[in-house]
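Handoff note, outgoing to incoming analyst
You'll be picking up this chain. Sequence as last confirmed:
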Amino acid sequence: MRCLYKRAVADGFIAASDNPALKVAKPRRLPSTRRAVADTRLAEINEAAASTGDDPALDTLLLRLHTETACRRGGALALRPVDLDPDQCLILLREKGDTMRWQPASPTLMRYLQRHAEERGATETGQLLRYRSGQPITYRRYDYLWVRIGEHLPWAYVQQISTLVASHNVDMGGTELWLCHRTGLRRSFGRWR
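Most recent structure output, in case you need it:
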């Protein structure tokens, strides 16, 4: 309703002083439920992805990409081979709100991404992440991955660990990546190199 009244004021249908939404206090935001998943749990997730499903190589690559770069699903799906800079170990991510950022990646991840693109027939400006058939993946791959992980790891289902939505948490001691959707996974860049 606040949005509706704000637009009505902006369009001149009502005066700002007649906006009833301004008289009602905004509700408090609930505290964030983001938290790190222990390294042992992260290893269990990776093991479940690597040992089940119809394309474990793709699923483990997805998990590593998100864990290492903190990219959103949309950023991963928009990734193209031309967005990889192997000389500097950087990945150009195009994400929500038309934001673009160069994100560091380990040499190992860079090699896996390049090999994946080559083996699965990704063109320089086409989507990088693909099924074995060469077809580009969609959001449905993520749904399939997390449903499967939830079936093999009941705690992941109960804690609602699902599609990884990333944000950064910068400590005094260095950069840590927080990957979360209600709960999250955390890794530092240094552990993957």
